[in-house]
Inverse folding.
């Protein structure tokens, strides 16, 4: 069976747990995601540990955000690990995104538009007043102009972003929760089925899978519900 287009966020406190989760979910999902918690604690070795022998795609979610020269150096440093995807913040601007794209030619650079944990009230406080859709679409189009071939947005904006940037750009949505699941710190959320139907290519799902007593079964259940819905 083809693995589902899900990136499981391995936000684990230690490497053994992350590697165990990865081994349990990789028969069912296409990708595992390494974020700041794991990478800052264990560094580059984490990639091989979570990939194991499966060859699953590794998404390195470091959300780089600095001046272009610094981001170029950071992207070059991690490019040798050959992650399938590396994130940068779209708010870093076109020169910064371009620097990442040029420094990691074998990795897909994904620009994070507006974090899924932010509400419109939060956006207003940081000077982005107005519908989240507007900020997300603006950041999405500048990121694509700068050479990003993937974008991260919430499922709420994914249809609008698809209309803005067209096909050929990978749309990645965190903020995904099965119906009735706890949303925790996520604010702009939707179900996996909704996110996919609205145009997402890859769903980022962490705690609904990893906090389950059986992460393998939780991943398999979401993958099966996506197959039924498609
Ligand atoms: O806007 C964003 C960008 C990245 N993330 C990351 O996705 C996962 C979500 O985990 P859950 O447990 O499913 O909430 C997490 O690693 C975030 O760092 C995001 O949530 N929103």
């Amino acid at each position: 069976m083809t693995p589902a287009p899900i990136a499981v966020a391995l936000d684990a406190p230690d490497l053994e747990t992350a590697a165990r989760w990865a081994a349990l979910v990789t028969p069912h999902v296409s990708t595992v995601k390494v974020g700041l918690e794991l990478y800052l604690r264990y560094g580059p070795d984490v990639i091989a540990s979570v990939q194991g022998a499966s060859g699953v795609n590794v998404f390195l979610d470091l959300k780089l955000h600095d001046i272009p020269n610094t981001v170029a150096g950071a992207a070059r440093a991690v490019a040798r690990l050959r992650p399938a995807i590396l994130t940068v913040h779209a708010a870093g601007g076109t020169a910064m995104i371009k620097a990442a794209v040029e420094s990691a030619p074998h990795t897909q650079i994904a620009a994070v538009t507006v974090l899924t944990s932010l509400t419109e009230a939060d956006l207003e406080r940081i000077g982005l007043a107005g519908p989240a859709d507007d900020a997300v679409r603006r950041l999405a189009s500048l990121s694509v102009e700068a050479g990003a071939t993937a974008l991260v947005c919430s499922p709420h904006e994914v249809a609008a972003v698809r209309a803005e940037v067209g096909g050929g750009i990978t749309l990645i949505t965190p903020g995904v929760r099965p119906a009735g699941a706890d949303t925790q710190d996520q604010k702009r959320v939707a179900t996996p089925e909704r996110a996919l139907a609205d145009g997402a290519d890859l769903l980022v799902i962490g705690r609904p899978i990893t906090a389950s007593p059986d992460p393998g079964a939780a991943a398999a259940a979401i993958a099966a519900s996506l197959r039924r819905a498609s």
Q: What stands out?
A: DSSP finds eleven helices and eight strands in the chain. The chain has a mean pLDDT of 97.
